[in-house]
Every structure is written in structure tokens, then in C-alpha cells.
Write a structure and sequence with these properties.
The protein contains 14 helices and 17 strands. The chain is an alpha/beta fold and 404 residues long. The protein has 2 domains: 136 residues, Aspartate Aminotransferase, domain 1; 255 residues, Aspartate Aminotransferase, domain 2 (3-Layer(aba) Sandwich), CATH 3.40.640. Bound molecules: pyridoxal-5'-phosphate. Pyridoxal-5'-phosphate binds next to helix 4.
Length: 404
């Protein structure tokens, strides 16, 4: 059975205090905390077999290569990719999206159309705008309603033979909305378009099956799911990744180099120029092991309890307005209190040891949609508790009294 008090013992950071109070960490949508099991894997790498991979004949290099490639297989199996070389190690979601967006520079023509959603993280908007600048392609936007739900009928109207690519997040980091990506992918494929799903916010809660989804590209960052920062993945179907040109040139990504002609390495190395974050890649695999041992269904069910509990309590406070009330949500709550600036509330909560995020959450178009400068965002992980939510609610009421 799931015992949150046992789970919390795995996370050393949860024992510390902030401003004299026990830390309450409600900023999991920005980055998750790291369990001992993952910290140990990183430490063990540097203590015992730190070495550059793929190029060495010596024992350490072979050991590091084996463990790193084993981590790639763990990621492959977790996302049910058909082949290990369809998993590209990257520095994270942002890097992964840039690899794909950059790769389409020569594959698009002026007048081609790309479709994005109204609720994207900047990292799933800006690389595509840059691609449009380079190619003359046109960016279209799937609108959303007040509840933070995408308008699928409007999406159907946007799709046409001109549509080449669709990119949507699986879960919105600002609103928590779980998007109907199965339907989005199916509709795009009927139109002949390819789909990239930004899974950064979904991966900590939902185990995506890339083959069942038939998704063309799926990307995420390890640090959102108990892994370290600076490492993530790009999944792509083999035939699509084979067509994409490399993003960066350098060591490791070549087959042969001469000053007359250079040929590129096979997948996945074509996209992995230079020495990667080796310990990070290994720890990414360990983070998936850790979460799978608890079980993604168990994690999601527990987090839903926290979401419902916190939403009910927040709604009882006068002046609280929640943004994002989709029927399918992960444990993210964005809200404001009357005209009080989110930053002021966030600062007072910080004095009480409670970490929340305030601002636009790298999703300014959402804030423009609601005509607000930003929100207070609380986001839960499976190591949070109802007791912590009680403390937040008390602290929030105090903050409101001080600021009114
Ligand atoms: C965190 C996040 C990103 C960016 O991830 P990085 O690790 O900063 O590259 C992109 N999209 C969503 C939905 C996110 O939650």
C-alpha cells in the first residue's frame, strides 16, 4: 500500500527548514525533488566509474557506456518505444523541441501551416516561430475556453492539406489540463500532418505509450519526474528521425570526417554530438525505476486526492478564483485572490516555508487570454500531504488578511 510517510523518507530535502519553518514544496510543476535512490546513482557514477562513453577501450569507459545505454533502454521500455535508437538523449524538453523545429527548416515551404495550442509553454511556441521565420510557414492556434479546455472543433477547422506539423502539450504546466492527445494525433494523421507532444508536465503523472498513441515525436525532461536537471529525451519514429538533419555538429555524431566530406552517424548518435550528461542520463533511468516501483497509477490516484482536497478548500476562501477547471487535470492549481498581486502572496508564503510559483509560468498567452499578469500556482507530487495543504490554507488566509 502507498504510505506517504515512508515515501517522504526517500527525499532528504523534505527534512530541511526554510525561514525557520519545515519546507512545504508545492512547486513540483517547475521541478520535482530527487530521492536518495537517484542521488546515490549520480554519486556512485562519479565515485566509481566516471569516464567518457562510446570511445574508450578501457574498463571504465565500457562500464559507463553499458550503464548509459542501459538507461536508454529503460526509457525506451517506459515509453514503449519500438527501438532503443528512437530515444535521443537531450538536455531536456526545450532542447528536444529545438532539434525537431530546427530539423524542419529545409523540409517546409512558404505557406505550409503549423498548428500549436493556446496553452503551450514558451518552449513549445518560440522554436516554431523561429522555424516560421526561416521558412515562411504560418503558425495557427487552437483556441481554448474559460475552463482551460481546447476547442477540438476549431482544431478540426484549422487542419488541412497545408498542415505539416501539430505540437501540443500532453498536460498544461500552467492549468493542469490533460489534453485529448489521442484524438489530436488521430485527426492530424488523417490530414497527413506529423505531431509532436510536449510531455514534460505529463510524464510525472501519466505513463505515455508512444506506440499506442502512434505519436511522431514525444519529449520530456528528467527533472520533472524525480531525475536531475539538464537531461531529457526526444522520442521520434525511426523513419522520421532518419530524415531529420542533425542539430549540432561535433564529436560522436559522425561516421567519417574529412575536409572533403563528412558523413553522419546512425541513430541515436546523429543527434548526440559531444559528451553528454552521462550521470544525468543514468539517473534519468534510475528515476523511472523509482517511480515505476511505486506505480504510476498509484501516484496519479494519490495526487488526484490532493488535487480535490486542495481545490475544495481554496474555493471556500472569499475572493479566490481558480484558472483551469478542465474535467481532466493533473495536480496543478493556478489561482488569484481578488486584486492582490500573486507575487505578494507568494512572498508571504515563502516566509512561512511554503514554496509556490507566481507569475506567467512560461505561458504568457494563457495569462493574456484571462487578462491577468500571472497567477499563484501550487503543484503537488506524490510526496506531498493533506496536512501540508492545511498549512498552506492557513498561511494563505493569513496572507490575505495582511494584504487586504
Ligand atoms: C517544464 C516544461 C517545459 C520546459 O522544460 P525544460 O526542462 O525547461 O526544457 C516545457 N513544457 C512544459 C509543459 C513544461 O512543464
Amino acid at each position: 500500500m502507498f504510505d506517504v510517510n515512508e515515501i517522504r523518507k526517500d527525499f532528504p530535502i523534505l527534512e530541511r527548514t526554510v525561514n525557520g519553518q519545515p519546507l512545504i514544496y508545492f512547486d513540483n510543476a517547475a521541478t520535482s525533488q530527487t530521492p536518495n535512490q537517484v542521488i546515490e546513482v549520480i554519486s556512485n557514477y562519479y565515485r566509481n566509474y566516471n569516464s567518457n562513453i562510446h570511445r574508450g577501450v578501457h574498463a571504465l569507459s565500457q562500464e559507463a557506456t553499458d550503464v548509459y545505454e542501459n538507461a536508454r533502454q529503460k526509457i525506451q521500455h517506459h515509453f514503449n518505444a519500438a527501438r532503443a535508437h528512437e530515444i535521443i538523449f537531450t538536455s531536456g524538453t526545450t532542447h528536444s523541441i529545438n532539434i525537431v523545429a530546427s530539423g524542419y527548416s529545409k523540409l517546409l515551404q512558404a505557406g505550409d501551416e503549423l498548428i500549436v495550442s493556446a496553452m503551450e509553454h514558451h518552449s513549445n511556441i518560440v522554436p516554431w516561430q523561429m522555424l516560421c521565420d526561416r521558412t515562411g510557414a504560418i503558425l495557427k492556434v487552437i483556441p481554448m475556453d474559460q475552463a482551460g479546455v481546447l476547442d477540438i472543433d476549431a482544431y478540426k477547422d484549422l487542419l488541412s492539406k497545408k498542415t505539416k506539423l501539430v505540437f501540443v502539450n500532453h498536460v498544461s504546466n500552467a492549468l493542469g489540463t490533460v489534453n485529448p492527445i489521442e484524438e489530436i494525433i488521430k485527426l492530424a494523421h488523417i490530414s497527413g500532418a506529423k505531431v509532436l507532444i510536449d510531455g514534460a508536465q505529463a510524464s510525472p503523472h501519466i505513463k505515455a505509450d508512444v506506440q499506442a498513441l502512434e505519436v511522431d515525436y514525444y519529449v520530456t525532461s528528467a527533472h520533472k519526474l524525480c531525475g536531475p536537471t539538464g537531461v531529457g529525451m526526444l522520442y521520434g519514429k525511426e523513419e522520421l528521425l532518419s530524415q531529420l538533419p542533425p542539430y549540432q555538429g561535433g564529436g560522436e555524431m559522425i561516421a567519417e570526417v574529412s575536409f572533403e566530406k563528412t558523413t553522419y552517424a546512425d541513430l541515436p548518435h546523429k543527434f548526440e554530438a559531444g559528451t553528454p550528461n552521462i550521470a544525468g542520463g543514468i539517473a534519468f533511468g534510475a528515476a523511472l525505476d523509482y517511480m515505476n516501483a511505486i506505480g504510476f497509477e498509484t501516484i496519479a490516484a494519490y495526487e488526484q486526492e490532493l488535487l480535490i482536497y486542495a481545490t475544495e478548500q481554496l474555493k471556500e476562501i472569499d475572493g479566490v478564483k481558480i484558472y483551469g477547471e478542465a474535467p481532466q487535470k493533473t495536480a496543478v492549481i493556478s489561482f488569484n485572490v481578488d486584486e492582490i498581486h500573486p507575487y505578494d502572496i507568494g512572498s508571504i508564503l515563502d516566509k512561512m516555508g511554503i514554496a509556490v510559483r507566481t507569475g506567467h509560468h512560461c505561458a504568457q498567452p494563457i495569462m493574456d487570454f484571462y487578462k491577468i499578469p500571472g497567477t499563484i500556482r501550487i503543484s503537488f507530487s506524490f510526496y506531498n500531504t493533506e496536512k501540508e495543504i492545511d498549512t498552506l490554507i492557513k498561511g494563505l488566509k493569513k496572507a490575505i488578511l495582511m494584504l487586504k
